[in-house]
Amino acid sequence: MKGAKRLWLWFIGVNVALVGVILYSAMAPGALTKTMLLPGETSHGHYQIEMRCDVCHTEGNGIREDACLDCHAEELRLAKDTHPSSKFNDPVNAEMLATLDAQSCLTCHREHVQEQTLEMGLTMPSDYCYHCHQETLESRPSHANFAFDSCATAGCHNYHDNRALYENFLNKHASEEDFLAEMVGLVRPEKTPVFTAPNKNTAGLAAENTADISAEITADAPETFPSDPVILEEWASTAHAAAGVNCSDCHAPLTVSDTSTPNQPSETEPTWDAAVSHETCGRCHEQQLETFLQGHHGMRLAQDLSPMTPAQARLPMHVDAAHRELDCNACHTGHRFDTTFASVDACLTCHNDDHSNAFLQTSHFQAWQSELAGDSPQGSGVTCATCHMPRLEDDDGEVWVQHNQNANLRPNEKMIREVCMHCHGLAFSIDALADRELIRQCFGSSPSKHVESVDLAQSWFEEKERQKEARRKKRQSK
Ligand code: HEC
Ligand code: HEC
Ligand code: HEC
Ligand code: HEC
Ligand code: HEC
Ligand code: HEC
Ligand code: HEC
Ligand code: HEC
Ligand code: HEC
Ligand code: HEC
């Protein structure tokens, strides 16, 4: 009798659970039902946003026409794409499309087909260059013995981005030393405060929590707010206070009209919000916000999904960081906004792969320690951020920090011009980036690979020069 009762209870339990699951998937169409419809695992580049089927798919599950270019056009433009679809509108090249439709991204980048997906979302065997470039093997004696699956291997050519690999560039930088005479990158200028605090409606805000700071600014946190000496001290000693950015500039709640104009706490809204969102930071740091939203750290926020967390990552992460949310304050913690901490220590609170962990043993890290100690010039150190969030110079000569850590990650030759060539020669940089084992050790020793492209380019130009010279001599002797 007892057994039957237990069976019944079990039966009821299972049914309740089942109904629960069905109800849940009906009520929360986001998660469960959507993943069930996925034909296979989504690629490394997109799995974070796979829940947003609609950014790529039409209602009928086709692919939206401009989906890929909506998000990637700018990147390919900056990469000076070697094979844009416009190249194939030219009748001379158009016939190539008969064998391989290079005007459609999907020819080479399909989705949810994990078993045939290579690096960078490539779903095409890597020897296809053959279809259009057969003649190269004939016209270039040096290439006669090359296999077609080697064209696009590290260090030789890329399909889209050849900014550091085209012949004239290779030749021009052929004779550079491995270590340049002057090894310094860009320096972030000491900013003189440029921010003028908007005319704030200070209703509800009182000048109670006074902190003694040079910029003669008084903290404007609400009177009822228990003044926290640590926060006051941290805020008062940093660029924000110096620039006149006050508590309320970050902590007054955003209202709809605030998102485009400087902060104006309204009288009807509450005047304090303890949580500060990336959008608040972005009102004053537009470029940083925009680029942050483009990479793996911010791409979920860009699609109105919950923030990325280490728990959702496919790369190895520290277990105790699993539920930390990727927002601006993931790296800019506390009220110090300490860029030294953000450049290495912050990264290592989450990242836990061989490459990241090896960094502290490298000569790059030593160079950074030496810069911090004041023993070598500013800009001579190398941090995680030097490579992954490089300082860039915009058209007005203004130095700012790229916050999309995927912008130069793959193919990794994107790092050459932006990063390595501040300090190293081109050939050395190409060799180092083609060496997977060296990357795993975070560049802790010299490259053990040698890519021939610089040598080939140099001898190609020398040969052309010799031919020209011979023709000139011939003409002269006539
Ligand atoms: C980043 C873009 C992207 C996102 C996001 C995305 N997909 Fe896809 N999906 C693709 C691409 C590209 C293909 C391949 C189309 C092709 O081969 O013609 C595809 C193929 C499919 C197919 C197979 C269709 C067929 O005709 O073979 C299904 C089913 C599918 N996706 C479902 C989903 C669902 C469900 C979601 C959301 C949970 C989703 N996809 C999210 C890009 C995406
Ligand atoms: C909603 C915006 C969005 C759409 C739509 C989208 N992508 Fe992406 N894609 C991203 C982001 C964000 C990344 C990750 C950051 C990066 O690698 O630049 C990415 C990464 C990639 C990568 C690099 C993968 C890697 O592992 O390095 C490729 C290739 C790519 N996308 C191709 C496509 C193609 C082809 C389509 C059209 C089917 C497409 N994307 C549609 C946003 C998008
Ligand atoms: C004929 C094959 C082919 C086609 C067509 C193609 N790609 Fe690629 N794509 C590649 C290869 C190969 C890579 C790997 C890196 C490389 O060689 O440039 C790549 C890499 C990428 C990347 C990674 C970052 C980068 O800059 O290389 C993105 C993003 C990308 N493709 C987007 C697109 C989009 C968007 C389209 C359509 C407009 C497209 N691709 C069409 C072959 C192709
Ligand atoms: C669908 C045909 C097609 C495919 C496939 C193709 N290419 Fe090309 N490629 C072209 C065309 C067309 C040009 C432009 C030629 C020109 O302007 O003289 C070009 C130009 C180039 C250039 C620049 C040459 C220069 O000096 O301007 C490089 C490098 C290159 N391709 C490499 C590759 C690699 C590597 C692959 C394979 C990953 C590949 N291509 C696949 C059609 C193709
Ligand atoms: C540049 C923007 C910025 C300024 C200026 C700023 N804060 Fe904050 N504050 C933040 C951020 C970011 C957080 C963390 C919020 C979160 O975790 O969501 C925070 C959190 C807090 C918290 C709650 C969390 C904690 O650490 O206990 C208090 C209290 C606080 N701030 C007080 C102040 C006071 C007082 C001032 C002025 C002296 C001030 N803040 C100025 C950005 C700012
Ligand atoms: C009301 C405008 C404003 C807001 C809101 C704001 N900042 Fe700033 N921030 C500034 C100004 C002005 C400077 C100093 C000049 C500069 O570096 O551009 C600055 C400097 C910085 C610096 C450089 C510090 C240094 O030591 O060089 C960081 C990092 C920073 N802010 C991050 C943030 C983050 C993260 C948030 C959001 C939590 C935020 N800011 C919110 C105006 C603002
Ligand atoms: C992955 C870590 C990380 C995240 C997330 C991050 N930052 Fe930064 N940020 C850094 C590092 C590292 C530096 C300093 C790099 C250097 O000195 O070269 C920096 C520098 C800055 C600076 C000063 C330099 C400049 O660009 O003028 C500002 C302002 C800034 N960040 C704002 C933001 C804002 C706003 C967000 C959120 C949208 C954000 N950061 C998110 C790591 C991060
Ligand atoms: C709060 C945790 C956290 C912090 C802090 C953090 N990251 Fe990340 N990072 C992540 C997560 C999560 C991903 C996404 C991993 C994935 O998609 O598998 C990621 C992705 C990346 C990627 C892209 C990897 C790829 O294969 O596409 C790079 C590069 C990276 N982070 C570098 C850094 C650097 C440099 C810093 C410090 C300036 C940093 N991260 C700080 C959690 C963090
Ligand atoms: C000298 C430049 C350099 C430095 C310094 C550096 N990295 Fe990298 N990192 C690279 C290169 C190159 C790659 C490989 C990109 C590729 O080819 O996929 C890489 C890859 C990564 C990846 C992606 C790994 C994967 O498997 O997809 C992460 C995450 C990362 N780095 C984080 C960090 C962190 C955190 C630090 C500091 C502790 C750091 N890196 C220091 C150059 C650097
Ligand atoms: C700001 C300058 C700077 C930048 C940028 C830089 N490096 Fe270095 N690199 C150095 C210094 C300094 C050393 C140590 C030289 C020495 O030992 O005398 C070094 C050493 C190396 C070594 C040899 C390590 C050893 O212990 O033998 C490799 C490999 C290397 N760098 C690769 C790279 C690559 C790849 C990039 C670009 C992604 C890069 N570096 C960017 C300054 C830089």
UniProtKB/TrEMBL annotation:
Broad enzyme group: oxidoreductase
Transmembrane segments: 7-27
GO cellular component: outer membrane-bounded periplasmic space
Chief location bin: other
GO terms under biological process: anaerobic electron transport chain
Sequence similarity: Belongs to the cytochrome c-552 family.
Name this protein carries in UniProt: nitrite reductase (cytochrome; ammonia-forming)
Source organism (scientific name): Rhodopirellula sallentina SM41
